[in-house]
Specification:
Layout (H helix, E strand, L loop, with lengths): L7 E4 L6 E3 L2 H24 L21 H10 L7 E3 L3 H10 L3 E5 L4 H11 L8 E3 L12 H8 L11 E5 L2 H10 L7 E6 L1 H9 L7 E2 L2 H13 L3
Parallel strand pairs: 1-4, 1-6, 4-5, 6-7, 7-8
Antiparallel strand pairs: 2-3
Helix pairs in contact: 3-8, 6-7
């Protein structure tokens, strides 16, 4: 089956756009992030809120979240980003092709932007590809809440309309959950794409479909060509 033709593609960063040279550090960061969401989920159940509740696309009272654990981890590492991560194989082919087809693109990450995410975009010449970049300090509620995706889409020069199709590609369960949770808040389809096993499980659990699973960027390129070049 041909995937629905995207007009906007949002990417996760860690594990999707770039991969860690030291996977244990990524594991620690993801574990901490998941732990924070388990705590948030407990309070969500207590106060009967859900991740598809009305989004908070602005910081509360104009204040940025403190993110003490995130900042402490990045201070401890004391390494340049090119010593920590590298672009995932095949990602530039995907980005170049999408750009050639005038597909708007963005980065949506639970990681910090200052001292990390923005440095990655600059170091690996990724900035020119993305119309918008949303990091942890830019929002109050991170994935699996839909807020980061909605913030990114709201930051485009023109917000998505009913004729748009949004893809969100990520490697974690929370990426798939965030894309699904964003659907009620948008006038267009939002299609989660699983990059790797962790996200693939969430795709299957939510009956999204096997066609929405890829294990590497070279797997996606021919399907993108079929989707974008045959449906003009």
């Amino acid at each position: 089956m041909t995937l629905q033709r995207p007009t906007i593609v949002l990417f996760d960063m860690d594990g999707t756009t770039v991969r860690h040279l030291h996977p244990m550090l990524l594991h620690v960061l993801e574990t901490l992030d998941d732990a924070s969401h388990k705590t948030a989920r407990f309070f969500s159940k207590t106060f009967r809120t859900k991740i598809d509740a009305p989004p908070l696309v602005e910081t509360r009272h104009g204040k940025r979240p403190k993110l003490l654990v995130h900042r402490a981890m990045h201070k401890i590492r004391r390494k340049d980003v090119d010593e920590m991560v590298e672009p995932c194989p095949g990602i530039y082919d995907i980005l170049d092709f999408l750009k050639s087809q005038h597909v708007r693109m963005g980065i949506v990450s639970n990681g910090l932007g200052k001292g990390y995410g923005h440095d990655i975009l600059k170091t690996f010449d990724l900035e020119p590809y993305f119309d918008v970049a949303i990091f942890r300090e830019d929002i109050s509620r991170s994935k699996p809440w839909p807020d980061p995706l909605l913030q990114a889409l709201n930051g485009l020069s023109a917000p998505p309309g009913k004729d748009d199709v949004v893809w969100y590609i990520g490697d974690r369960r929370k990426d798939i959950q965030a894309a699904i949770a964003a659907r009620p808040h948008l006038p267009c389809p939002v299609i989660p794409i699983a990059y790797g096993l962790n996200a693939a499980i969430a795709v299957l659990e939510n009956n999204v479909g096997n066609d929405n699973i890829i294990m590497g960027w070279p797997d996606l390129l021919p399907r993108l060509r079929q989707s974008l070049l045959t449906l003009h």
